[in-house]
């Protein structure tokens, strides 16, 4: 047993140092910047397109006093339903030729005007080039009626009694934290566990793994490689979390303290996130490492890893049922099923303050990690040193 632990530690230290102390690890740490950069670029493009294709406004050809009353009525409605939900009004001074001015306004590109109101509040006249926009015309009629009646002041205050119920906003924020935590855990596990495949294929093609296997037990080689990549992944996650917290502290007023806290607190949530990532990584990484041992080329790795990646997507969908309903039957089933348990319990940490379910879940997951490591190590031992042409099954039976 001591030889197994020492051998595993030697392999883990070797792979960890080769990964973390290499120049490529810097690019690995910079990896999350590229999706953020692409998101910012495409977000800017989308905002530019949205600005160019902005919602048509209504041109108002009325005296300034009447336009002021009309715009005040519009602002009262916007205060109730939101400014973006109410049509925009743009005032123009009426000219001597109203008909010609209306035609010019209906072709105005910025801001795009497709409806023009002229006359006065007592007898308004509407000319529109967007007759199919019934919602805009209804809003315009409501604004005209409110401005004509002169009811631009807010209604008298209503008696409101505050009921002592859980904060709905905090509940919604915690559900969002649970969902984002699950998504981050899923994508990091898929991204980082795939590193095991390429590393193992490289060592198999260079015949390095046969030399290592001659000095240490195959089981120790399997476990050492898995925990080395887990340690390197945890280093990357700690760096990313620290950089994200520093960015929030610098950009957001009040910093991290203003974020809605999870049910177990930020310290407990981050600690459980690392633990559940380790469990999820070991469960999935053992499967990926076993696949890498069975494959001889990168093409075979890609072909064999696709089904397990698709299965992990289904497991993520199963675990997401725990968001918003941690005590439901499906959520409890997701917490019991070992492959979805880390993601389901991470969502529970964001929404429920109890700690004893996490202690039980970590023990349950550790049991399955040991079982999968055992099975994976046996398959690893049977396949990693296989060389030469493969013997067909009917030839083996005949022999």
Protein traits:
mainly alpha; single chain; 2 domains; 68% helix; 16 helices; Rossmann fold; 4-stranded mixed β-sheet; 399 residues
Low-confidence stretches: 387-394
Q: Hey, roughly how much beta strand do the residues contain?
A: 5-15%
Rg to the nearest angstrom? Answer: 32 Å
SSE string: HHHEHEHEEHHHHHHHHHHH
Tell me the span between the first and last alpha carbons.
37 Å
Helix content: 55-70%
The number of E-state strands comes to 4
Number of domains: 2
- Widest sheet: strand ordering: 2-1-3-4
Largest sheet: 4 strands, mixed
- Give the overall average pLDDT: 75
Q: Please identify the structural class as seen in this structure.
A: mainly alpha
From the spread of the alpha carbons, the general shape counts as: elongated
Number of helices: 16
Give an overview in words.
- The chain is mainly α and 399 residues long.
- It has 16 helices and 4 strands.
- The protein has 2 domains: 55-149, Rossmann fold (3-Layer(aba) Sandwich); 170-387, no CATH class.
- Helix 7 (168-193) packs antiparallel against helix 14 and helix 13 (329-336) packs across helix 14 (341-351).
């Amino acid at each position: 047993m001591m030889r197994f632990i020492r051998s595993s530690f030697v392999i883990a230290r070797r792979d960890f140092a080769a990964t973390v102390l290499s120049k490529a690890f810097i690019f690995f740490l910079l990896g999350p910047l590229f999706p953020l950069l692409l998101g910012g670029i495409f977000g800017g493009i989308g905002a530019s397109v949205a600005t160019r294709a902005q919602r048509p406004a209504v041109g108002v050809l009325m005296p300034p006093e009447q336009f002021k009353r009309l715009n005040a009525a519009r602002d009262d409605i916007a205060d109730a339903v939101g400014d973006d939900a109410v049509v925009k009004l743009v005032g123009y001074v009426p000219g001597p030729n109203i008909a010609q001015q209306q035609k010019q306004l209906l072709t105005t590109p910025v801001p795009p005007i497709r409806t023009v109101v002229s006359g006065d509040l007592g007898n308004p006249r509407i000319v529109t080039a967007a007759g199919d926009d019934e919602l805009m015309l209804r809003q315009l009629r409501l604004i005209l009626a409110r401005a004509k009646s002169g009811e631009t002041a807010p209604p008298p205050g209503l008696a409101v009694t505050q009921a002592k119920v859980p904060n709905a906003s905090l509940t919604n924020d915690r559900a969002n934290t649970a969902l984002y935590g699950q998504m981050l855990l899923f994508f990091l596990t898929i991204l980082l566990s795939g590193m095991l495949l390429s590393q193992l294929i490289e060592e198999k093609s260079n015949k390095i793994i046969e030399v290592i296997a001659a000095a240490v037990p195959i089981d120790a080689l399997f476990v050492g490689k898995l925990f080395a990549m887990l340690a390197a992944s945890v280093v990357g996650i700690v760096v990313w979390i620290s950089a994200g917290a520093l960015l929030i502290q610098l950009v957001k007023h009040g910093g991290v303290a203003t974020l809605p806290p999870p049910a177990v607190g930020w310290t407990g949530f981050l600690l459980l996130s690392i633990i559940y990532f380790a469990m999820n990584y070991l469960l999935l990484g053992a499967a990926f490492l076993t696949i890498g041992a069975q494959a001889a080329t990168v093409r075979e790795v890609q072909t064999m890893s696709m089904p397990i990646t698709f299965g992990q997507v289904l497991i993520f969908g199963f675990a997401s049922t725990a968001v918003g309903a941690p005590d439901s039957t499906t959520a409890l089933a997701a917490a019991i099923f070992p492959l979805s348990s880390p993601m389901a319990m991470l969502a529970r940490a964001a929404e429920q303050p109890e700690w004893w379910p996490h202690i039980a879940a970590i023990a349950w997951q550790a049991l399955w990690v040991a079982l999968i490591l055992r099975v994976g190590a046996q398959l690893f031992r049977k396949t990693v040193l296989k060389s030469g042409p493969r013997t067909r099954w009917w030839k083996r039976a005949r022999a």
